[in-house]
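Postdoc handover notes: sequence design on the structure in folder B. Input tokens:
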């Protein structure tokens, strides 16, 4: 049984001349977030029911298609029923409703009909009343047969409300919302929701240097979130700065090269935060994220090569061994959870550590210090990943 989603996108909002579906949310439109949440909950077919297709809505749906989401546009109820199989488990997502993926996935479980509910006492008229204690939380789980049966008797009634009523009359299970949700009707409703999205997306993760850079990354990511700049562009700039830094080190402009690499380090964190806020595919697996370690490694080798002219070939060996230990450390981290992982070496941490090392002891001291840190981190991780007592 496949899971499909039906998103209503035809109600006028409280903003003059605008549909709820195209109200701006985290730098995109509301319907884009609904579709991405449905996809994350497991929907393999997402039908967006529209009555008219203004340019802004069409552009939003085209962006989703470019990102390979399984979007189908239905201009009326008949087209919606044709796009959904009778045996499909169907998530109904109300017009303007934002429900997180975990709650949608909880609704999708099982085979019975289920309706998400919120308390009547704390939610207003945007949330359709179900009974004396509950209102509709903006999502329900039905099946394709119910959609077809409703379409056959719909006449001039609203599909969303009629589907909800028929589902409740059939004895649908009530699922109380266990996380915040929202039904958006105007821009003023968005402020609190965006604050919640930002709080989740800007959560600090990663190593010690990620935690030190987090305040800067959060401020810049918050400022960028409402605009059109995406994580791909931010990450591309980070990769470009890293490449320029490596080139500077290759040309012997060591301080310039190091400065450029330092400037690049907050940008990938900013890109990750913007990507998480917009529910984009994991930016951590993007091309720029994969390219940066290679560029940084090339810069380190270039630095070692530049120092070899006066200090001997051992400087190249220092750089190469640092890269080898860092790669081996990444393999150990993939195999096991390492205690104290926040303190272990990574590319960004090594870049920033180079600054005090060089300032106090010169470039050779910097190369030696990075090797010692990478090697110590690797042996720590190897011990805890493979030693029987450490695993107990």
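Designed sequence:
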């Amino acid at each position: 049984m496949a899971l499909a989603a039906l998103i209503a996108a035809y109600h006028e909002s409280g903003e003059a001349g605008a549909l709820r579906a195209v109200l701006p949310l985290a730098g995109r439109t509301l319907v884009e977030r609904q579709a991405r949440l449905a996809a994350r909950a497991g929907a393999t077919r997402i039908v967006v029911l529209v009555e008219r297709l203004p340019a802004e809505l069409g552009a939003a749906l085209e962006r989703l298609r470019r990102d390979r989401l399984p979007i189908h546009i239905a201009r009326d109820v008949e087209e919606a029923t044709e796009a959904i199989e009778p045996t499909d488990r169907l998530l109904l997502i109300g017009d303007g409703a934002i429900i997180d993926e975990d709650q949608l996935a909880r609704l999708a479980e099982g085979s019975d009909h289920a309706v998400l509910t919120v308390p009547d006492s704390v939610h207003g008229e945007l949330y359709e009343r179900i009974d004396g204690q509950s209102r509709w939380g903006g999502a329900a789980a039905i099946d394709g047969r119910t959609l077809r049966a409703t379409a056959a008797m719909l006449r001039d009634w609203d599909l969303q409300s009629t589907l909800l009523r028929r589902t409740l009359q059939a004895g649908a299970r009530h699922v109380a919302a266990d996380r915040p949700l929202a039904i958006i009707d105007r821009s003023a409703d968005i402020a609190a929701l965006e604050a919640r999205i930002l709080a989740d997306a800007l959560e600090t993760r990663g190593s010690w240097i990620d935690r030190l850079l987090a305040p800067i990354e959060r401020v810049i990511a918050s400022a960028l979130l409402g605009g059109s700049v995406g994580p791909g562009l931010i990450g591309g700039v980070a990769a470009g700065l890293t490449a320029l830094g490596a080139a500077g080190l290759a040309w012997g402009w060591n301080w310039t090269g190091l400065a450029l690499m330092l400037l690049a380090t907050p940008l990938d964190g900013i890109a990750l935060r913007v990507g998480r806020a917009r529910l984009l595919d994991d930016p951590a697996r993007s091309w720029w994220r994969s390219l940066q370690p290679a560029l940084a490694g090339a810069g380190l080798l270039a630095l070692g090569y530049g120092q070899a002219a006066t200090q001997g070939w051992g400087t190249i060996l220092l750089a190469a061994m640092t890269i080898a230990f860092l790669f081996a450390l990444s393999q150990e981290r993939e195999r096991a959870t390492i205690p104290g992982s926040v303190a272990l070496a990574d590319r960004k941490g090594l870049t920033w550590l180079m600054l005090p090392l060089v300032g106090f002891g010169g470039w050779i001291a910097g190369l030696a210090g990075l090797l010692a840190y990478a090697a110590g981190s690797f042996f720590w991780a190897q011990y805890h990943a493979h030693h029987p007592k450490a695993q107990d």
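Context for whoever picks this up: The first strand starts at residue 3 and ends at 8. Don't rerun without checking with the PI first.
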